[in-house]
Design goal:
It is a single chain. By secondary structure, this protein is an alpha+beta fold. The protein folds into four domains: 196 residues, 2-Layer Sandwich (Nucleotidyltransferase, domain 5), CATH 3.30.420; 102 residues, ATPase, nucleotide binding domain (Nucleotidyltransferase, domain 5, 2-Layer Sandwich); 85 residues; 158 residues, no CATH class. It contains 13 helices and 30 strands.
Length: 592
Amino acid sequence: MPDSDDLAALMDGFHLDNNAPTAYESNEKLIIALDFGTTFSGIAYCFANQRDTKVVAIVEWPGAEGESAPKIPTLINYSDAGGGEFAWGASVNRLQDNIVGVKLLLDPKQERPLYLPTANAKRAIKSLPKPPVEIAADFIGAVYRHALSEISKVVPHDYFKICQKHFVLSVPAVWSDGAKNATLQAAKIAGIFPVTLIKEPEAAALYTMHSLDFSLNVGDAFVVCDAGGGTVDLISYEVVGLSPTLQVKELVPGTGGMAGSLGLNQRFAEAVKNLVGDDQFADLRKSKGFFLAEKSFDREIKRAFKGDQDEEYFVNFPMAYLDDDPELGLEANCWRMTGTDLKAIFAPLITDILRLIDDQVKSVKIKRPGSDVTGIFLVGGFGSSQYLKACVKREHPDIQVLQPTDAWAAIVKGAALSKLPKQATVVATSAPKHYGVQAFKIYDPILDKDVPSQIRRDGSKRALSVRYPFMTWFINMGEDIQRNQEIKFSFFRSIDENYSPNDLIFNDTLYECADQHAPRHQSKGNKIGPNCKLTSDLRSVSSNLFEKRTDIDGDSYYDVTYNLVVTLKSALMTFSLEMDGVSMGSVQAKFS
């Protein structure tokens, strides 16, 4: 690996100062994509200007002891309580008390299924040496820096130096906008610039269409199921164009949940606990014997299982001194696992994934009555499971179920491909939720029967003639939104004639709702909640653009009318301000 001075020279375009982006003198582009996973992470890269561009994965990692590995464990361990020096990836001692699954802590509000052990996210975050976003930044920065040093070894030094470096990070589609923004902030804290986000199923779809040798026709529809370590993400697409490049659009909003293969590891640990008993398990869990057994299950057994009840696998617990129990298959510190044992471990996660796939298939058929689903793509680490594929085929015998040969790499390679010209492109998104703002309107006794009772007189059913905050929805769930389409939210403020600069800083809340039908107002029965706080700064705007008015007392004031412009990118909304059709001022979004 290059020393610090050499690496600094190589990282031209990898900015440690985000306030000073570099002006490039070359059109040569290097695209570097990171699949920041819950359990494993990987890097892929490509040079955009090559005639036959190939996406290459990084396979050499610190601590891997010469073993080529397409992915490394998403682990980090700090040498001090202050969160300073750290080991990461394959260089971490797996027997230490490492930080595992920090990616999930970026979205702690994700609902956990009942079959997984209960996790106290707040307690886990408090036990960390620094906030999750900063830990993620340490890991992401270390991985990207290593990638740059590895890529520099395979191309001429001068060429590498002049290349523009474009960084891509994949995120689960089902994550909240706040969690996606936290991932983006982690990259920025790490000093990575410029960086874009892409939804994991979208990246997987791009790679699958690029790699699988079959023809697609306009009107074909397919479901992408990205089953990874922590989450399972699904989005459905329709082919809308074939020339000059393949073009697809999202059909229905993405769905998913925490049914990733990390759950299999957790359920394996629970199965071992039930096998040996609480007392023996307390000591076993701390031993190297359990670590080796868990490693064998994770890397060999769960990947090899095909669903046959007659299959047998042997799990060893070296030097564990466990009591024999031949009836349960435990003898001489070795557990003979049967296909029945494994099916019990897989069962709730498989059931969850099949339900998610079935929901997508049904939603697609509702969106396109009379049309079939052409295929189901299984990608991701768990998506490469032959048992999962067999279960999906059994549930959907009339739909072709496809797995790329390197399903584990579909996301990271697709993320790299997403930045190449002349590749398949996603031209439209299906809005995952309703988005809007609150506005005061007159109460309607017919439409608003469930408005909170405090606006009613003396507890009677007769409503006061008052103004009440109702929702104005600008984006509706399932709405087809063209990629980079601008959606304008209109806002209005009145300010004094002798206003101060701070009077031109306006705060608003963007709301979201996951209900099927957008409600008119907030109540206990609906799923309306804040998406982010928006701070609009119009201090740089000339007062000539404000409308001067006079009130009934003869006092002058200004009406300020502006548009908040929302653009739905691949993975995250972006915001800007507009007045009279011209971009001006600035807006900042703060996610909760």
